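This section describes the prediction task in plain terms. A model, or a person checking by hand, is given the sequence of a single protein chain and must write out its three-dimensional structure as a string of tokens. No templates, partner chains or ligands are provided. The sample shown here is typical of the held-out split.
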Amino acid sequence: MFSNMLRVAVVMLTLYFQPPTAASEFSNGRQIQYSTRFTTLAFRESPFADIAGAGSLSSEQARVRNHYRFDYDQAGRLIQVSFRRGNLLLEPNHTANYFWHCSRVDIYYQDGQEIRYCFDYQGNPMLSRGDVYREIYNLNDLGYRSSLHFEDTNGKRIQDSWGIAEYRWQIRVDGTVLEQRSDLQGQPVNMRPGLAFGTLILKYGPDSWLALMQNVDTNGELLANDTGAAQDKMVFDKQGLVQSWNVLDRQGNPLRGNGPNVARGIQTYTRWGYELMVRYEDERDNAILNAYGWGRGIRSYDDFGNMLSSYFADQYGKPMMVEAWGYARAQVLWSNDGIQFLSRSYFDTEGNRVAHKTRGFCQLDYSYDDNHNLIAIKFLDINGKPVNRLDTGVAVILYEYDDTNRRTIIRYMNTSGNPVNHLQQGWARAQNLYDGQGLPAGANYFDLTGKPVSL
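The expected answer:
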């Protein structure tokens, strides 16, 4: 089943490995032998699977469209994946998946390990998935991934934002993959928030895409979670786009379960591989609303690949207000060159401006400096006036940068222009710290009076 998956070489001279710095795109003379380009990333439920693209592009098309560039060395090993327009690095957008959180990932190989680092849109090293600086995959004798753990900039093992410290994989006799996860105390952790599956058996198809994901107990027997779900059956097209996902019980019967409380999610795409619509069905193939109160999500895009709008419809395709969120459509505005996200606004089914029910604002506006750095986010009411968010108490977020475009200061302000403590985070100002190599070294936090805050 793994014949088409990229085999990772185990042996590599140590002189080729050196942790990346902010100064260079490639370290120690690594050269790109060839590159491939894609409009989006293939869906992954586990980091065991390779990073893969979907929606192939030519180099000429990639000059004018958002895309992922996959760079390979002379041995055919993937050494970098980046999200770009032409050669310009971009912030992650709607095409990112559960395991993509930055603008660029550099991959190094050393002594039976695959080591990954993240970079921002300016090419500076960054933390991702919480405070993760380094992802270290251990490889078995055949080059397949056997485990993954996370480290901070000091090389200390840490948990990611999902509370996971380590993934462990075992390729079983029948070719399936057993996945287990644990926190720093060695306790089991579910696969991700919103999906209560623990130990997994992953079955991949001949095209390397995930075909079936099973939740099992310590004996490898199918185990239903609190919603009755025990299995997820995935259907991909040849290029890696999910056509449907299907919730099954222990006996393999369709079941309404997991977070959305549906039996099936069906997705369609634009010619570029962007999600055009998702809709839902019950166990009898009837169109239904999901647990969040809507039946269809429909999107539109510009010629660069940026999302322009999304709106909700009922199970029959009629536009609808989502009661829990208080809006029917979100509209996005981009700069003329499609590089900078400028604003997002909410509307009802009649096109009237409305405030988000739980956040309390109708529109958010982004501002940038000449180096494409985000310097302000402003939250506005239906009349275009500043408003304090209901969930955070913040009306404006201000950002400052140093001369290498590293973010140094974050400030929260209210409608009066005064510092305000974020209602959930408990601080009003953060000062990001960097070490002598330019690597993130934590942050100091302060309340609205300037008093230090311990987190």
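For orientation: The chain has a mean pLDDT of 93.
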